[in-house]
Every structure is written in C-alpha cells, then in structure tokens.
Amino acid sequence: MHLIISDVMPALCPFLTLVCLPVIILLVLLYVFREVLGSCPPCRSNKRLDGKTVIITGGNAGIGKETAIDLARRGARVILGCRSAERAQEAVRDIIAKTGNSKVVFYILDLADLDSVRQFAATVLEKESRLHILINNAGIGKAAVLIPGSTTKQGFDLTFGTNYLGPFLLTYLLLDLLRSSAPSQIINVSSHMHWFCFRQLNFNSETKNGVRYPYLTGYEISKLGNVLHARELAKRLQNTGVRANSLHPGMVETEIWTPLKKKYPAWMYNFLMSIIRMFGLNSTEGAQTTIYVSVDEGAEEYNGRYFAKCTLSKENRLALDDSTCALLWDHSMKMCDLK
Ligand SMILES: NC(=O)c1ccc[n+]([C@@H]2O[C@H](COP(=O)([O-])OP(=O)(O)OC[C@H]3O[C@@H](n4cnc5c(N)ncnc54)[C@H](OP(=O)(O)O)[C@@H]3O)[C@@H](O)[C@H]2O)c1
Ligand SMILES: *[C@@H]1O[C@H](CO)[C@@H](O)[C@H](O)[C@H]1NC(C)=O
Ligand SMILES: *[C@@H]1O[C@H](CO)[C@@H](O)[C@H](O)[C@H]1NC(C)=O
C-alpha cells in the first residue's frame, strides 16, 4: 500500500497544484461571494404590526431606516434612537411621508456614551407603556475609527462600546418593559465579520493606553459580542415570552462605508464601492433579514439563533460557547456599573 502511494505521489503533485488547487480556490471564492455578498430574498410576510411598538437604534440611515419604513408600513409605532436630532428629524419626516403612518418618533441616543443610553432608556420608560421589538441596529464599521485607540465617553474601545456595550446596557434597562409586553423580542444586527475572531475573548480589565478592557476592541469582537449577547439573553429570558436573536444583514451599500473615503485614495474607494454595488445589496434588500426576524411567524420558535438571508445561519464556534456567553455578560454588567 505504502509503495503504491509513494509511486503515485510525484505524478500526482503537479496534477494537484495545476488542476485541483485552482478549482478549489475558485469554488471557495464562489462560495464566499454567494454566502457573504450574494442576494437576499425579500421577506414575503404580510404580517401587520398594528398596536406593536418597535425601537430601532440608528433608524435614521441605511439598513435601520429601511427597516423603520417597512415596520411603519405594517402599522407599528416606530421609535428611532439617534445621536443627531437633525438627521433623526429628517428621517422621521421622510418615514411618515413614505408610509402615511404618523406614529413615528425619535429620542436622542448616543451609544458611545452610557449616560446617554441611560437617558434614552429613562425617556422610553417614561413615555412608552409597551415595547414589543427592540432592534439593536446602530453601529459603526471598521473604517469609522480614524484615530486608533479612540474610546467611548467611559473609556471603552469606540467600536466595542458603540456596537456592543451601549446596546448591552440599553437592552438591560429595557428588559422589564419587554417582559411586561411579551410576546416580544430583541434583535441584534451583527455581521458575518464575527467569524474573523479566532481566539477566545480576553477579559483582562486593566486600562492600557487609556482604553479599558484593552483586548475587547474592534469590529469583529464587537459583532461576536452581539451574537454571544443574544444567546445569553435567550437563555436568561427562557419562559418569559421574550426572544433574542442576532443576524447578518448582508454586504450592504450604506453610509457605513463612507469613512473609507478618508482612509483610501479616491480611485480605491470608488473601486471598492463599485464592487459592493455590483455584488452586494442596497439598503432595502439589506433590511430584509431584520424585517424577517421581526415579523415572520415561522421564526417564532427560534430563540438565541443567528440569521442571514432571511433564514437560519451558522455562527462562529466561539459564539456557541456557553461559558463565554456568561463571562461576557458578567463583565458587561461590571463595565456598566450594574449589579
Ligand atoms: N453595511 C453592511 O455591509 C453591513 C454588514 C454587516 C453588518 N452591518 C451592520 O448593520 C448595522 C447598520 O449599519 P448600516 O450599514 O445601515 O450603516 P449606516 O448607514 O452607517 O447606519 C448606521 C446607523 O447607526 C447610527 N449610529 C452610529 N453610531 C452611533 C452612536 N454612537 N449612537 C447612536 N447611533 C449611532 C448612525 O447614526 P448617524 O447617522 O448619526 O451616523 C446610523 O443611523 C450595523 O450594526 C452594522 O454593523 C452592516
Ligand atoms: C445584542 O447585542 C447587544 C450588545 O451589542 C446587547 O445589548 C443586546 O442585548 C443583544 N441582543 C441580542 C438579541 O443579542
Ligand atoms: C433597492 O433595489 C430594489 C430593487 O431590487 C428597489 O426596489 C429598491 O427601491 C432599492 N432600494 C433603494 C434604497 O435604492
């Protein structure tokens, strides 16, 4: 047997490299393009959301705004959480004009400042008696951090703080309202980019170069946090009628890419954007999975799951580790000074 293999191998090697390897690379590329960039089927549910209240963070642009338009069309009361009153006002006007639903409002929310998150939650608790869907959509992309080492007001990594910690505190403060409005749900807009975390999270809590928890930084970790958070929430909220799920919207042409303009020369930025335009989704298409999870009756049995393209998807193995979910929860409580 050994003899045969060693006889054949030398002849096999060039064959492998010349034919098999390119074919394998091509197949992998096609798979990645289809999985990560490819089209998303529209959410076909006609479900109405009359009488339901929805919060969408960052609902003034991109995926969040398209989600807001769709849910408002279904009759929901839609609350946007936005950091700019001016942009929020304009979006509210536009959403009302497009949908004819006047139950659209905004309250100020800056996720990069835990005090602002507390203020927003207090306003919601004061003004709203019900909350059925909380969509943690707002986020900044990799390119948004122009100065490395930028932090939130409380000194956490800017991306981690905006994409994960702010939403964690927001969700925590609204849990009782979600519980009393059950059946209700929490949806985290995560990203397939969370697959690019290859190592266990490092919860070292020292402050390094002015950053608290200096190893919890960057886009990939913040998005892994969204998935872990949804799973831990799902576990904690069992039998309360509150579900928690996370999702990948697709590769979507939104303002999330705009900061790249400052990072790259114009030709490179334009080239990248044309790739995204060609293979990616526009923001209406990018909102479909969020809408699907928000309304689809078929998804109602799901809890603590991860979605993409309007269907169940696979999360990073690291996101399935129950002890990491629990550890991240405990540390997040400490970061937010919660008991
Ligand atoms: N686009 C993609 O290809 C893609 C892929 C995977 C995942 N995602 C995720 O999808 C979500 C939505 O992104 P998008 O593509 O729609 O981007 P976008 O067009 O840039 O919209 C992001 C929204 O988040 C808001 N926001 C940012 N920082 C905030 C803060 N500190 N406090 C409150 N609101 C804040 C923005 O408000 P301003 O208008 O004030 O900036 C904006 O409304 C993000 O979580 C992103 O990670 C996007
Ligand atoms: C989503 O992640 C945020 C942190 O980014 C967390 O606060 C929230 O509870 C999570 N919700 C779900 C459903 O994962
Ligand atoms: C996105 O494309 C679809 C067609 O595929 C179109 O109906 C929709 O209006 C577009 N949305 C935006 C925001 O351009």
Secondary structure layout plus pairing:
Layout: H1 2-37, E1 53-57, H2 62-73, E2 77-82, H3 85-99, E3 104-108, H4 114-127, E4 133-136, H5 158-180, E5 184-189, E6 207-208, E7 211-212, H6 219-236, E8 242-248, H7 260-263, H8 266-279, H9 283-286, H10 288-295, E9 306-308, E10 311-312, H11 322-335
Parallel strand pairs: 1-2, 1-4, 2-3, 4-5, 5-8, 8-9
Antiparallel strand pairs: 6-7, 9-10
Helix pairs in contact: 2-3, 4-5, 5-6, 6-11
Provide structural commentary.
There is one protein chain. The protein is of the alpha/beta class. The protein has a single domain, classed as Rossmann fold (3-Layer(aba) Sandwich), CATH 3.40.50.720. 48% of the residues lie in helices and 12% in strands. It has 11 helices and 10 strands. It has helices spanning 2-37, 62-73, 85-99, 114-127, 158-180, 219-236, 260-263, 266-279, 283-286, 288-295, 322-335; strands spanning 53-57, 77-82, 104-108, 133-136, 184-189, 207-208, 211-212, 242-248, 306-308, 311-312. Strands 3-2-1-4-5-8-9-10 form an 8-stranded mixed beta sheet, with helices on both faces. A two-stranded antiparallel ribbon has the order 6-7. The longest helix is centred in the N-terminal third of the chain and has 36 residues, at 2-37. 44% of the residues are buried. Bound molecules: NADP nicotinamide-adenine-dinucleotide phosphate and 2-acetamido-2-deoxy-beta-D-glucopyranose (NAG) (2 copies). GO terms for molecular function: oxidoreductase activity. Keywords: Membrane, Oxidoreductase, Transmembrane, Transmembrane helix. The chain crosses the membrane at residues 12-33. It comes from Potamilus streckersoni. This is Retinol dehydrogenase 11.
